[in-house]
Amino acid sequence: MKLKALFTAAAATTAIMAGTHAQAASRDYISIVGSSTVYPFATVVAERFGRSTEFSVPKIESTGSGGGLKLFCEGLGENTPDITNASRAIKSSEIELCASNGVDEIIEVKIGYDGIAFANAKDAEHLEISRAQLFMALAKDLPDASGELKPNPYNKWSDIDPSLPDYEIEVLGPPPTSGTRDAFVELVMEEGCAEVPAVAALEDQDEDVFEAVCKSMREDGRFIEAGENDNLIVQKLVASPEAFGIFGFGFLEENSDKVQPAHIGGVIPTFETIGDGSYPVSRSLFFYVKKAHVDVIPGMAEYLAEFTSQDAIGEFGYLTDRGLIPLDQREWTKVRNAVVNLEPNL
Amino acid sequence: MTDILNEMATRREQKLKRSLSKRYRQEVVFKAFGVASIVSALLFLVILLWTIFAQGHTAFQTTQVRLSVDLDPVTLGLPDNPTEQDIFRASFGTVLRDAIMAKIPEASSRRERRAVIEFISTGATYDLRDKVIANPELIGQTIEYWALAGDDLNQFNKGNIDRNVDESNRQFKDNQIAWFDKLDANGDIKTTFNTNFFTNGDSRDAEMAGIAGSIVGSFYVLVVTLLLSFPIGVAAAVYLEEFAPKNRVTEIIEININNLAAVPSIVFGLLGLAIFLNVAHLPRSAPVVGGLVLTLMSLPTIIISSRAAIKAVPPSIREAATGMGASKMQVVLQHVLPLAMPGMMTGTIIAMAQALGETAPLLMIGMVAFIVDIPSGPMDAATVLPVQIYTWAENPELGFRENTSGAIIVLLGFLAFMNATAVYLRKRLERRW
């Protein structure tokens, strides 16, 4: 008897669940995937949007830019994400993948820029450095005169170039889990290594070795992984004036009384130089929208409007407070128009 | 002659004594090792629990600031006879900002004013809005309102920011401390129970973030897991134990079940991604899919423990029932199953407790996500409690550190409760023959 009751209860519950299934047939919240760099900005917009409108709060997964675009391009329909965030532009291969799955009307929305600063304490010597020099200071292995790979021999900045300060090399930076680290490796190390002739020569011999040389950071204690806490890096820089740190531009702004940024390739990071792309260690942040979903999923148009409003990504917007570099007025108008008119712009 | 014999006897006795004391010594050392390993295990447990409780107990408290809020319809931007829609869109942020500025008029520069405004959480705006929607007659009045404090003030009030630390290394600056002390002296600061922590979903603001969303998510996931894995597991165990012929095929099945119990859980997540999402097209991030994946994971555990429980039922009972003319099915359903049930339930509860603590397989099916709304059914997007802990632990704000530990305390509480139930059931219902 008891058993029978148990099974009846189970059957009843299953029926109820099947019922809720039918009821939840169309999704009433926006589904967002993508870049972990954009994630902190998107979650803030999503929460504000959800709390101040009658729509549900969008669901956001942090899958990385590549993973997000892969999910995004799987097709149309409520089981696929509506929006994907990306800390790089979509690749042509991804556009093709999307198109082959029926996702052809995509709206690209550029939300701003992300800059990475290389800085030291204010009372220490100012640094003017090129990306090639930064690579030589921070690479794990470098080819010697005969082209053989040896552990990085440089101990002082002045060993690399006499114009650099006579400081021991000591750089505090984010761990490999961080998007800032990925961007630094991509924009400084990989760019810099191509400019060093001895390393560039490796590319012709063995591409894998070349890749490894370009991407590996020193592990002999000259490059120190200081954790995700940028506050801590700033404190350590103040305490040891010969050290340098790598962190997001937002932190540089907030601590401009304590630290100074280095000129990289002759440019210093400011709102303007990052905005116009002349500062080399910066990248654009995007999200991509399926036009076909805008009319199906409730709140899409409103979410897009909120994200691209001056309140959010404008010069004094709440995302700018959290470290986003805003677009210039002309670019913003273009983005805003694309969003308002829902023009597929790829 | 006897002398020699005696001498030999004493020598042997001495040798024996020596080896005996050596053996005793070895035993003492062996026991000491055992005690030492237990003591060190306990020590680690105590350290773990102590750090979690020391960091987490403040998560259950929150800070409120008393404001006198002037709900002036003009400042709120309300028309005459406002509708609920109008009130929903009114600028409650402005009246709250004015109210906190009125408490600390000495803050004058833009930077200082901003620091003062951050004393109040953005959550207070929405809370006040909901309050006024419920009581529209408040419009036009000046009310006393206990507003939720912002993260920094909250952390300082709860003692998580040390005022003796050098100012440059402290998030809460000297002038903020002075304003705080002034408010505190007036009795405008109150530490209360943090209901938000138990009624809210996730949030990017630590003082508003709660575990309700993830607890409901965990609940749905576990219900699905239980409803699927218990009947399937028991049926499989009954068949294998009572009906299946003993041949090579059942032997292979048995070995495979035992091996599946040892498969890393992430593998089940990949399986779930491939089957439930890519082939069956079930929604991402839904507790149903989480439940299906965790069913796969907990089935081997349930089957193994159920088989053990069935095996423990003495054959005499089966023989007696058969002797009284019961069919094989009657024997199983009316005699073996009821007697084996306590053992099966114990195994199921242990498997459920394991499923409750699982994160890795859920990563693959999109349950690791930022979800604010509390899910209303097993098809809604949801996270689970351990995933919430994981996502909070990645946030840099100080407030999330205590939230993380607070959520761990709740999760440990659930696990301890489930395991205690299993022990209780075993003690109470299990029969020994």
Which characteristics define this entry?
heterodimer; A: 346 residues; alpha/beta; D-Maltodextrin-Binding Protein, domain 2; 2 domains; 17 helices; 17% strand; globular; B: 433 residues; MetI-like fold; three-stranded antiparallel beta sheet; 4 strands; flat
Secondary structure topology:
The complex is a heterodimer of chains A (346) and B (433).
Chain A lengths: L1 H22 L7 E4 L4 H14 L6 E3 L3 H8 L10 E4 L5 H9 L5 E16 L6 E2 L1 H8 L2 E3 L5 E3 L5 H4 L10 E3 L5 H17 L1 H9 L1 H9 L7 E3 L4 H10 L4 E5 H6 L4 E3 L1 E2 L6 H5 L6 E9 H4 L5 H8 L2 H4 L4 H4 L7 H13 L5
Chain B lengths: L1 H55 L4 E10 L2 H4 L7 H6 L2 H12 L6 H8 L4 H13 L7 E7 L2 H7 L16 H12 L3 E5 L2 H4 L12 H32 L4 H13 L4 H15 L7 H25 L3 H9 L4 H29 L3 H5 L4 E2 L14 H9 L4 H32 L4
Antiparallel strand pairs in B: 1-2, 1-3
Helix pairs in contact in B: 1-18, 10-13, 10-15, 10-17, 12-13, 13-15, 14-15, 15-18, 17-18
Short précis:
Chain A is of the alpha/beta class and 346 residues long. Helix content of chain A is 45%, strand content 17%.
